[in-house]
Automatic annotation (TrEMBL):
Name under which the protein is recorded: omega-amidase
One CC-aspect GO term: mitochondrion
GO molecular function: omega-amidase activity
Organism for this UniProt entry: Mytilus edulis
Pfam families: CN_hydrolase
Catalytic activity: 2-oxoglutaramate + H2O = 2-oxoglutarate + NH4(+); 2-oxosuccinamate + H2O = oxaloacetate + NH4(+)
Amino acid sequence: MTFKVALIQMAVTAVKSDNLEHAVKLINKAATNGAQLIILPECFNSPYDTSCFPKYAECIPGQTSDLLAQTAKDNNVYIIGGSIPEIDNGKVYNTCPVFSPSGELLTKHRKMHLVDIDVPGKIRFREADTLSPGCDFTTFDTPYCKIGIGVCYDLRFPELAHIYGEMGCKFLVYPGAFNMTTGPSHMEPLLRARAVDNEVYVALVSGSRDETASYVAWGHSTVVSPWGDVLATTEHLETIVYCDIDPDFVDKVRTRLPILSQKRTDMYSLTNVVTRT
């Protein structure tokens, strides 16, 4: 049941309609090249800028999600729709919608952990100035394996990945936009850590780099194996990264190195407490 994924590291402009048209073209290309699961980057229809989130926000279902649903159906593929600014009951979320090959909206993940960083002389960014946090774990089933979803900063919190592993996920996907300060130092180590700690495949899909943007993305979309090996990656330019995912390899790794069954639950445990709003 090996399946091919495509990580679409696309350029994002200030024009939503152009971004949507471009995303569809890249999805079509990835599907033509045999991808069965296609992943877009964080904020693919909007600049990644706190001042833009309320202006670009839309409902789900809405313009962007309807287009992705139709594109998934047209190509008979799963689409993890990166993320878009979503508005619901007056609140704005950074939300990742997921679509089936029949065009059904399977689920959506609202970014659980909001970025609040201040590196003097480097970068200051506060999503909470305009965004609200999500309050749900998000997984979906495919014929290949169960998949867990996070968005960018969610990657930094090992508890989320651990819970997804406990829920039976073999592949974790994080649409993301690491910046030029944290990306070079942190992104790959975090991906490899989440993969090794939970013995799962992990992917992060970034937009391409735009040096003129208010927030400059690191790029380097990457897939890591359950053994911690980087299976596929790229630099910062727009491209599509392809990778074959073998869910059976997860089972092989867990048999060879059974750390998940060797946890000392008599001494410690992680409690899953979910609050829904």
